[in-house]
TrEMBL record:
Organism: Chitinophaga cymbidii
Lineage of source species: Bacteria, Pseudomonadati, Bacteroidota, Chitinophagia, Chitinophagales
Enzymatic class: hydrolase
One Pfam short name: dCMP_cyt_deam_1
Listed GO biological process terms: tRNA wobble adenosine to inosine editing
Summary of subunit composition and partner proteins: Homodimer.
Protein name: tRNA-specific adenosine deaminase
Domain CMP/dCMP-type deaminase: 5-115
Length: 150
């Protein structure tokens, strides 16, 4: 029960990051990296702001965590992200050896599963969980894109 409460707390932090992206007119995806109950990296999509197609929320949060720890590995950390990581981010997560990934909602169009199917692209020891705050995350993304189509 305690883990679920912590998971929801940290996913809500990732949703706050997604809202920061929304405020900057970026696709609203947010991420936090947590270790020992402490956020050690935060990120939100900054692709348009930085004119950098690699500036995804996960990549920014990972870089912040690496810098915080002074390490390139995150075996004891959890990434909370509001949308299923893409293949690029999945590759970075593989190399980070992150211990756990919790993502809120699937991304049928650009998520890693579109390419990998049922085969996990993550490190063999990485645990993956999905669905926490999924509807809230999807509503942010759908609202963003419906606003663009007007």
């Amino acid at each position: 029960m305690m883990n679920m409460m912590n998971d929801e707390h940290f996913m809500r932090q990732a949703l706050q990051e997604a809202r920061k992206a929304l405020e900057k007119d970026e696709v609203p995806i947010g991420a936090v990296v947590v270790m020992d109950g402490q956020i050690i990296g935060r990120g939100f999509n900054q692709v348009e702001m930085l004119t950098d197609c690699t500036a995804h929320a996960e990549m920014i949060a990972l870089t912040a965590a690496f810098n915080y720890l002074g390490s390139k590995y995150l075996m004891d950390a959890t990434l909370y992200v509001t949308l299923e990581p893409c293949v690029m981010c999945a590759g970075a997560l593989y190399w980070s050896k992150i211990g756990r990934i919790v993502y809120a909602a699937p991304d049928e169009k650009n998520g890693y599963r579109r390419v990998t199917g049922d085969k996990s692209p993550f490190h063999p020891k990485t645990k993956v969980e999905t669905g926490l705050c999924g509807e809230e995350s999807l509503q942010l993304v759908k609202g963003f894109f419906s606003g663009k189509r007007k």
